[in-house]
Amino acid sequence: MNRRNLLKTLSLSLGTGIVTTDVLARVGENTYSYLIGENSNHQPISKPVTVITCGAGSRGNVYGNYATQFPEQLKVIGVAEPVAFRNEKYAKKHQIEAANRFDTWEDVFKKPKMADAVIISMPDNLHYEPCMQALRLGYDVLLEKPIAPTERECRNILALARKTGRIVAVCHVLRYAPYFVKMKELIAKGAIGEVISMQHLEPIEHTHMAHSYVRGNWHNSKQTTPIILAKSCHDLDIMKWVIDKKAEKIVAMGNLKWFRRENAPAGSTARCTDGCLVERSCPYSAIKEYVDVVGRSHVLDIPENVPDRKLAALERLKTSNYGRCVYRMDNDQPDHYVSSIQFSDNVTASFSMEAFTAYHGIRTRVMGAMGDMVGDMNELVVHDFRTKKEMRFVPDAEDVAGYKNSGHGGGDWLLVKDFVQAVAQQNPALLTSTIDESIESHIMGFMAESSRKNGRVMEVKI
């Protein structure tokens, strides 16, 4: 593929606009750095879109931080958050008046509609009801994934969004990441010919698995959502999005193999703080993870003004799930999960979610009739069978107006940017992850979980 032909592949219609990546810089032999161009359907807005954030944790701050950097586009005018210091910190950051600070999401919707949109970034099991309430009151919604814990609830949100005509943008942020935009562009323009198959790996990383899915908020699938949705609905979504095929059948296998009581080493105790004899050598030691590592204590919700954060972290481990032995939790999430998918046009795909890795970062391979591509979100390598050459594409860290990597390869803020435009123009076509688009990958997840539990190949019906 010569440079002239390459440049012809670098634009693709997304929604109703054109997103281009023809801003290239050669950084080595056959290696190019690139940026995502502006969507031609974005328009200047006369006043900022106003939002209320329900859930001022990690994701609520990621999306809300867009408003601190681009106040002319987005203004956070309310917050609902039960954790007092989170509520206080978020309100101070966005200068939210006392009347618009709420302890619970229910209190938000007791008032008449007072903003253009709502950001729902609460735990998975608290997505459905607030989203339905928001739609009934006429709010547009930026909804953190997964949409809801059950297929029925996901379909109900879709039906109400269609009935009310409101926008529901699902936070499938990888669709906005320059890396995956490039992958989709090149596939759509025939860089590897007709797609034949795909392999996709989600390496969770062993300590992240222990933090989030053994000890953490998502440790119990019955109380939240199955790990295939909690962690990997974005993987299923990006697989179908980049190859642009409909999922037809899915089969899955996996279980909880290691983080079980019978695997607890001799000398271990109920908590890492109970005098465990193997704590210093255990790779999952809560003391090593949250006390010894400077800067990790923030995940324990310790206020920033506490003078001795390490001591406070140690005390928190004595009472919270984060201090419990990983082998003695009431967790049920699989720690390894594989799935095979049949897409339309006889395209096959395999997906693997693995807890036991020393690294994180999605790895993807796409095999085509005329070439293949391999990538790890940092670099995408395209091999052309016809020319026997390869080209390397490295996404620039810049994502929005000079700001560097807001998260998920730049996808976090690029999503918010498009959401602001969609709400301001009342045009959901400016988004690539409306609920109409995102529902299919959620159904894939529910069918995968049903297959894993029942040992059957499941049809994917939208």
TrEMBL record:
A Pfam family it matches: GFO_IDH_MocA
Gfo/Idh/MocA-like oxidoreductase N-terminal domain boundaries: 51-171
InterPro entries: Gfo/Idh/MocA-like_OxRdtase_C, Gfo/Idh/MocA-like_OxRdtase_N, Gfo/Idh/MocA_Oxidoreductases, NAD(P)-bd_dom_sf
SUPFAM superfamilies given in the database record: Glyceraldehyde-3-phosphate dehydrogenase-like, C-terminal domain, NAD(P)-binding Rossmann-fold domains
Ranges where the Gfo/Idh/MocA-like oxidoreductase C-terminal domain occurs: 184-459
Stated name of the protein: Gfo/Idh/MocA family oxidoreductase
